[in-house]
C-alpha cells in the first residue's frame, strides 16, 4: 500500500506538469533564478507584437510609448498627434495629477518638450496644481516621478517643489513601512513600490534611504512563496511589475536579492501571467488586460536595460543620466550682469537657488519677501515649520512658503509689514534684505561706513545696512547703497554665495 501511494503521487505530479506544459507558457522552476537575457527579450518581443496587433490606429497609450522608446523603437508621428488631440479634447484640464504625469513622461520619451504640447505647459500644470493630493499619496508620487523623468528645473516659487513633494511622500509612510492612498490605511503593494520609485533619486539623503529600506522590507515580507503578491484578495501581475521597476530604480537585481527570492521569484512569477496572444493578464489565466500588459512591458524593459547596463527606464531624456539638477549652465546666463554670472552658477551648485523653468535663471527678475525667506532657510540649513501656528493672516498654512516664513519668524529673522501682515508677494528691497541678513547672521553694526545715500534709508534699517556693508556682504554702486531698490535674482545669488562661502551663520 505504501508503494502504491507513492506511485500515485508521482503520477499525479507528472500529469500536472505535462498539462501545464501543453497549455503553453514558460515554466521556471522555483529554485531556478537563472533567467537569461534571451527569455526576457523573447517575452518583450511578444508584448510588442501584441501592441502592434491591438493598436492598428497607432493610438498608443503613454506607458506603451515609454516602453517602446526605451527599447529604441521609433514611434510614428501619429502617436504624438494623438496625445496632442487627447490634450486638446480636454482643453488641457485633467482632474488627476496622474493624467498629466503620464502624458509628460510619454512626450518626453518622444523627445518632445512637455512644456508645449498643443500650446499647454504640462510641467507647470504638475508643479502648480492645486489638486495635488486629490488622489491621496498617488498624486505627489507620480508628480515627482514625472518631473524627474522629464529632467526639467522648476521655479523656486512653485506650489509644489521637488523637495515639497518628497517631504509629503516621506510623511505618508505607514508604521509598517508601506504606503497607502491615505496615511494610516492598509498599506498597498503597488503604491509602496511606486513610492520607492519616486524616492529613488534622493536616496543619498539619510531620511530617504531609511524610508526606502523600510519600504523594501515591507514588500519582502508581503511577497508570497510563489514570488508574487496577494492583495485585496487577488494576486495580480501589476504588483509584481511595479516592484520590479522599483528594485531596478535602486539598481537591485530582482533575481539576486535574497529578500525577493522565495520558492519563486518576481520575474518568473510575472512571466506566468503571459497569455497565448502575448499580452498579460491582471489575474492569472483571465485573459490579456491592457494595463497589466503595458506595466509588464515597462517592468521587463526596465530589467533588460538593467542587464544591458543602461539607465533606468524613466530617465530617457537625451543626455540625462543623473539628477535633473545636473546642468552645466543656465540658458540665459549671458543676460545676467557680468559681475553676477559666476555667483549664479555657484548658487545652483550649492543648492541655494534653482532656475525658473526651461533651464532659465531670469537674473533681472525681482525676488519676493517669501522667496527670500526660503533662501535664508536653505542657507542656514533650517527646516520649514509646517506645523507652526499661523501668525500672519496672509501667510496661510497651505501656502508653499508657510514653513519658510514661520521658521524665520520664530528665529527672530523677520517681522511683518504690519501687526498681522507679512506681504509675502511684495518685492523685497535692499534695506529689507540687509535687515534680515543682519538678524540671521547676528552681525555687529559698523560705526564707519562710507555711503552717499545712507540718509535715504529707513531709520530702522540703518544699523543693519552698516553691519552688512561693513562685513562686505553687500556693496553698492558708485558709493550708493540704493536702500529702496528692489532685489533682483542675480543680486540675491551674489549675496547668498558670499555668505555661504564665508561660512557665515553655519
Write a structural description.
This protein has 506 residues and is mostly helical. It folds into two domains: 32-307, Glycosyltransferase; 333-502, no CATH class. Helix content is 46%, strand content 0%. It is built from 19 helices and no strands. It has helices spanning 2-22, 37-54, 62-70, 77-89, 97-109, 122-127, 138-150, 162-171, 189-199, 206-222, 237-249, 266-271, 290-307, 341-349, 369-380, 402-410, 430-441, 462-470, 489-502. α3 runs parallel beside α5 (97-109) and α7 packs parallel to α9. It is elongated, with a radius of gyration of 28 Å. Mean pLDDT is 85; it is low at 1-32 and 318-328.
Query: What global shape is seen?
Result: elongated
CATH topology of the largest domain: Glycosyltransferase
Radius of gyration (CA) equals 28 Å
**pLDDT < 50 runs, ≥5 residues:** 1-32, 318-328
The count of DSSP E runs of length 2 or more, i.e. the number of strands, is: 0
| Largest sheet descriptor | none
The average pLDDT is 85
Q: What does the secondary structure layout of this molecule look like, with pairings?
A:
Blueprint: H1 2-22, H2 37-54, H3 62-70, H4 77-89, H5 97-109, H6 122-127, H7 138-150, H8 162-171, H9 189-199, H10 206-222, H11 237-249, H12 266-271, H13 290-307, H14 341-349, H15 369-380, H16 402-410, H17 430-441, H18 462-470, H19 489-502
Helix pairs in contact: 2-13, 3-5, 3-13, 5-7, 7-8, 7-9, 9-10, 9-11, 11-13, 14-19, 15-16, 15-19, 17-18
Amino acid at each position: 500500500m505504501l508503494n502504491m501511494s507513492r506511485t500515485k503521487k508521482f503520477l499525479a505530479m507528472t500529469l500536472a506538469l505535462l498539462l501545464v506544459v501543453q497549455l503553453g507558457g514558460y515554466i521556471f522552476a522555483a529554485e531556478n533564478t537563472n533567467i537569461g537575457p534571451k527569455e526576457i527579450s523573447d517575452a518583450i518581443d511578444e508584448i510588442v507584437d501584441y501592441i502592434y496587433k491591438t493598436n492598428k490606429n497607432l493610438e498608443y497609450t503613454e506607458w506603451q510609448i515609454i516602453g517602446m522608446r526605451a527599447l529604441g523603437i521609433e514611434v510614428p508621428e501619429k502617436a504624438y498627434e494623438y496625445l496632442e488631440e487627447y490634450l486638446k479634447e480636454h482643453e488641457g484640464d485633467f482632474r488627476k495629477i496622474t493624467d498629466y504625469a503620464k502624458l509628460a513622461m510619454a512626450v518626453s520619451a518622444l523627445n518632445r518638450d512637455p512644456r508645449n504640447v498643443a500650446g499647454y505647459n504640462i510641467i507647470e500644470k504638475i508643479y502648480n496644481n492645486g489638486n495635488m493630493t486629490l488622489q491621496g499619496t498617488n498624486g505627489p508620487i507620480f508628480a515627482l516621478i514625472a518631473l524627474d523623468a522629464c529632467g526639467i528645473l522648476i521655479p523656486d516659487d512653485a506650489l509644489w517643489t521637488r523637495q515639497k513633494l518628497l517631504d509629503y511622500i516621506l510623511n505618508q509612510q505607514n508604521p509598517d513601512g508601506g504606503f497607502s492612498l491615505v496615511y494610516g490605511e492598509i498599506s498597498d503593494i503597488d503604491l509602496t513600490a511606486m513610492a520607492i520609485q519616486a524616492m529613488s533619486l534622493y536616496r543619498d539623503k539619510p531620511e530617504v534611504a531609511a524610508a526606502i529600506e523600510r519600504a523594501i522590507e515591507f514588500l519582502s515580507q508581503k511577497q508570497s512563496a510563489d514570488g508574487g503578491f496577494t492583495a485585496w484578495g487577488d494576486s495580480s501581475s501589476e504588483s509584481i511589475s511595479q516592484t520590479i521597476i522599483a528594485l531596478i530604480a535602486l539598481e537591485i537585481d530582482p533575481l539576486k536579492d535574497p529578500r525577493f527570492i522565495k520558492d519563486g521569484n518576481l520575474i518568473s512569477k510575472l512571466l506566468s501571467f503571459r497569455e497565448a496572444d502575448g499580452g498579460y493578464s491582471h489575474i492569472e489565466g483571465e485573459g490579456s488586460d491592457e494595463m497589466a500588459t503595458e506595466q509588464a512591458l515597462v517592468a521587463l524593459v526596465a530589467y533588460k536595460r538593467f542587464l544591458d547596463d543602461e539607465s533606468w527606464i524613466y530617465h530617457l531624456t537625451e543626455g540625462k543620466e543623473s539628477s535633473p539638477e545636473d546642468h552645466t549652465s543656465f540658458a540665459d546666463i549671458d543676460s545676467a550682469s557680468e559681475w553676477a554670472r559666476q555667483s549664479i552658477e555657484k548658487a545652483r551648485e550649492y543648492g541655494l537657488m534653482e532656475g525658473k523653468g526651461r533651464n532659465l535663471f531670469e537674473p533681472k527678475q525681482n525676488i519676493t519677501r517669501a522667496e527670500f525667506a526660503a533662501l535664508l532657510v536653505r542657507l542656514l540649513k533650517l527646516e520649514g515649520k509646517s506645523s507652526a501656528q499661523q501668525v500672519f493672516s496672509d501667510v496661510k498654512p497651505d501656502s508653499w512658503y508657510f514653513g519658510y516664513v514661520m521658521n524665520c519668524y520664530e528665529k527672530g529673522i523677520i517681522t511683518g509689514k504690519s501687526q498681522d501682515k507679512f506681504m509675502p508677494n511684495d518685492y523685497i528691497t535692499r534695506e529689507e534684505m540687509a535687515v534680515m541678513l543682519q538678524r540671521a547672521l547676528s552681525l555687529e553694526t559698523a560705526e564707519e561706513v562710507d555711503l552717499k545715500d545712507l540718509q535715504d534709508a529707513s531709520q530702522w534699517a540703518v544699523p543693519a545696512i552698516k553691519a552688512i556693508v561693513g562685513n562686505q556682504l553687500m556693496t553698492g554702486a558708485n558709493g550708493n547703497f540704493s536702500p529702496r531698490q528692489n532685489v533682483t535674482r542675480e543680486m540675491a545669488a551674489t549675496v547668498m554665495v558670499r555668505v555661504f562661502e564665508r561660512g557665515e551663520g553655519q
